[in-house]
Write a structure and sequence with these properties.
Rossmann fold; 3 domains; eight-stranded mixed sheet; five-stranded parallel sheet; 15 strands; about 15% strand; mitochondrion
């Protein structure tokens, strides 16, 4: 059941047996993934994954209404299709909840890539679909925990499952019967029917496990409940079974089978859904932003330099594409590492957490040892295990495979690397064929020849940024922040400020010098004569 959206996108495009794209923008800047799980049917209907979300006016509202909703960010809209038949035949009603969750985990996450874009995920379920969401999440949690213990050999699957759980922000239920709705399953022989039996022990256990999972993960839950009982068809739902374990709940005068088909954007049910999704996204402020702000507060004079470097990266991305490299060049103590950390944190929001690596080449008299540790730090930073005592050839092979297996762009910050030939031990091959397109490499070094080495490794345009000393005002703020914890005596203020100006001139805006001198003078009396000499 494919149709055309107003912008020409195909509705119901099959991605695999279980996953369909309802809407995806040409612009790859997806900001949220919203995944819809349809409800139950007595007998199988092939297009249920679209029909269940189609209004009386024949509009598939998740695809046609959400894309124009100004209060929601750019969204990737997906629909999950599964056998929800309550009556059994040769081909339908044969899957248990356990088997179904295993299949959906493979098709929607492992193969379909839900939760792998680095963007938030919102899960939406209609009646039985809400229970399917719970079963899917618990299966993923179990597999991810087992893989962590090394029982499974699939590192990639473990990473995908972990990414999925980390990306989920909230779940929305349309009339989900958490405690069951079927008084009897005598006439319903489909395996899923048992999950809907009132007070089913299997469903009760699922509810409790999911409640713990969502509390640990800080997922928010919102729901719409049906006010109209449908006792004629033996389906009836009390408010309690629909309200269970929700943060925000609203009842509407709708039947169970139509509650997820709002008549228009003005209905209270649609507005409740939109406001809930918006709240899911707003309630999870990126930790990276907080860390960046903390870093900027602790270091003065960074604002303009950070903006310049980020702007250079943006211009490289627009004009060059592929992988971009930036070398922060300057003398010792000038603040290359501090600036690099700020830029790394600023750029981090564009990259998946497991695709961001910050490593520091430690100072040592044995260069090969430092490079080996650097290589292993990168491998570990990309969440891959690295056995100890690997020889150089094995480490290079592992590192190369680590880069090539990455499915999403990488952000790599290498601090304190001085010999440009060492880059080939960090990137064993031509960089465009090693790293995913859109990756960014940031290097802090006193060696301006790094740019030429990047070019020899296939990076068409590596940018050199000269880290400048602090201006007089920033230098004074940095020095005074380290030095004056107590008030300067009135009779010494003029002389102290004269001495401050001498120190600022001597340190020439070098942050390390200002920090060291300021910290040393902090422990002395106000008479700095000997120190200045």
């Amino acid at each position: 059941m494919a149709g055309e959206s107003p912008s020409g996108k195909l509705l119901g495009k099959e991605l695999n047996d279980s996953l369909y794209s309802l809407y995806e923008r040409d612009n790859p800047q997806v900001e949220v993934e919203i995944v819809f799980f349809h409800g139950l049917v007595f007998e199988s209907r092939g297009g249920i994954h679209i029909e269940d979300w189609t209004t009386s006016s024949e509009e598939c509202w998740p695809a046609l209404w959400l894309l124009d909703e100004p209060s929601l960010p750019r969204a990737r809209i997906l629909a999950v299709k599964y056998d929800s038949s309550l009556k059994r035949s040769d081909t339908h009603g044969v899957f248990s909840m356990e088997t179904l969750s295993e299949t959906l985990a493979t098709d929607s996450i492992d193969l379909g890539g839900i939760g792998q874009t680095g963007r938030p995920v919102v899960l939406v379920g209609h009646d039985l679909g809400g229970l399917v969401i719970k079963a899917l999440c618990m299966h993923v949690q179990t597999c991810e925990s087992v893989d962590k213990q090394g029982v499974s050999s699939s590192e990639e699957r473990s990473h995908k499952f972990r990414h999925f759980l980390e990306r989920v922000r909230g779940v929305f239920y349309f009339s989900t019967p958490h405690h069951g709705i079927l008084a009897s399953t005598a006439d319903l022989d489909g395996k899923l029917a048992q999950s809907l039996k009132i007070l089913s022990s299997e469903t009760s256990q699922l509810n409790e496990k999911f409640r713990k999972l969502r509390n640990n993960r800080h997922w928010e839950i919102a729901a719409l409940g049906s006010l109209i009982d449908d006792r004629e068809s033996s389906f009836f739902e009390l408010e309690a079974t629909q309200r269970y374990d929700t943060d925000v709940f609203m009842m509407v005068r709708e039947r169970r089978e139509t509650i997820n088909k709002p008549d228009s954007k003005r209905t209270s049910s649609f507005q409740h859904f939109v406001s809930s999704v918006k709240r899911f996204l707003q309630s999870h402020c990126p930790e990276d932003a907080d860390e960046f702000e903390d870093h900027m507060r602790q270091h003065v004079g960074l604002e303009s330099s950070v903006d310049q470097v980020v702007s250079l990266f943006d211009s490289l991305e627009r004009t060059e594409g592929g992988t971009n490299a930036m070398v922060l060049h300057g003398t010792a103590g000038i603040g290359k590492s501090t600036l690099g950390d700020a830029v790394f944190l600023k750029l981090s929001k564009k990259f998946d957490p497991d695709c961001r690596v910050r490593v520091d080449r430690e100072a040592t008299s044995v260069p090969s040892r430092a490079i080996s540790k650097l290589q292993q730090s990168i491998i570990k930073g990309l969440s891959l295990r690295c056995r100890p005592n690997l020889d150089r050839k094995e480490v290079l092979a592992k590192l190369k495979r680590c880069y090539q297996d990455a499915k999403r762009p990488l952000l790599i910050f290498i601090d304190n690397i001085e010999k440009d030939e060492e880059l080939k031990d960090i990137f064993p091959g031509k960089i465009p064929s090693l790293l995913p397109s859109g990756s960014c490499i940031l290097v802090a070094s006193r060696n301006h020849g790094m740019c030429n080495r990047f070019r020899s490794l296939g990076v068409r345009k590596a940018c050199l940024y000269h880290v400048k000393p602090l201006d007089k005002d920033s230098a004074q703020r940095l020095f005074c922040g380290n030095t004056f914890e107590s008030q300067i005596p009135q009779n010494q203020r003029i002389q102290v400020w004269k001495n401050v100006q001498k120190i600022l001139d001597t340190c020439s805006g070098v942050p390390l010098a200002l920090n060291v001198v300021g910290a040393a003078l902090n422990t002395l009396s106000w008479d700095w004569t000997l120190a200045l000499e």
